[in-house]
């Protein structure tokens, strides 16, 4: 296939300014609401201006090299990506992570539109890098980095993917109740929920939880917990790690199975004992979570697919 015939999908999202205008109808009303809440509306304007400039520049470059289609984040769940497409993401880390979950191995070229604002762990390129990187990306000669993903399947057939982590618990600030099983170990628990992390997510929420536990106890439960807490895991790691937050031991609940490795051969199983508000969500997006009602079982393991991020 000639480079000019290659389908390029440009994934973008609405800025904070666009979200406010969509909610309050006009820029003036958006300004009033933002300033009423003590926010700097000029920062909203600057962020939007820089983002739109980045998209315009990226679009102009892409249109010269292939067949370009722009896709808003809201349409990701229902969009079928061509298998030979090059996917370009302009936005924050979260947009890259969200996009990876809907791909089947297509490479992602991730661009940081505002390096002064966003650190960009998953954004190796800036707008001015695109002209240099794009020809190699279209020829598939550019190196990629593999990113392992996690998968949960409920006993009612629902599934969900995670690039960073899963949370299993309740939507409100009450204890989650469930049965947890890993290999031949099984326990009924009451806790603040379970974090299941990929390699990429191991330096995020999971590290925060492990660091807090270490600060309280002054020690790590085992060598692997120490390694994950201090160094994290490789993005391509073919294992997941789980940690139970604040397990409560009682006559009917235990606190023994609170940290462990999940592999392809040994998934984690969790059966809900929560009559209402039980939830499983991924990558911090609770709105897209699965209802985890009493009686449902979740099987959590590695997904067969990996994300591919151009370097």
Instruction: Work out the count of structural domains.
Output: 2
The counted number of beta strands is 17
The helix/strand class is: alpha/beta
Sum up the overall morphology in one term: globular
β content, as a range?
25-35%
The CATH class of the largest domain? Mainly Beta
Low-confidence stretches: none
Mean pLDDT: 94
If helices are DSSP runs of H or I spanning 4 or more residues, what is the number of helices? 7
Gyration radius over CA = 21 Å
**CATH topology-level fold name of the largest domain:** Tumour Suppressor Smad4
- State the share of residues found in helices, binned by percent: 25-40%
List keywords for this structure.
single chain; 311 residues; alpha/beta; Rossmann fold; Tumour Suppressor Smad4; eleven-stranded mixed beta sheet; six-stranded antiparallel beta sheet; 26% helix
Structural overview:
- This protein is 26% helix and 32% strand.
- By secondary structure, the chain is α/β, with parallel strands linked by helices.
- Strands 1, 2, 3, 4, 5, 6, 7, 9, 10, 14 and 17 form an eleven-stranded mixed beta sheet that branches. It has a six-stranded antiparallel beta sheet with strand order 13-12-11-8-15-16, covered by helices on one side.
- The mean pLDDT is 94.
Give the helix/strand layout.
Blueprint: E1 7-12, H1 16-24, H2 27-36, H3 41-63, E2 67-72, E3 86-90, H4 93-100, E4 107-112, E5 125-126, H5 130-139, E6 144-154, E7 159-162, E8 165-170, E9 176-182, E10 185-191, E11 194-197, H6 205-217, H7 223-231, E12 240-244, E13 259-262, E14 268-272, E15 278-282, E16 290-291, E17 297-310
Parallel strand pairs: 1-2, 1-3, 3-4, 4-5, 4-17
Antiparallel strand pairs: 6-7, 6-17, 8-11, 8-15, 9-10, 9-14, 11-12, 12-13, 14-17, 15-16
Helix pairs in contact: 1-2, 6-7
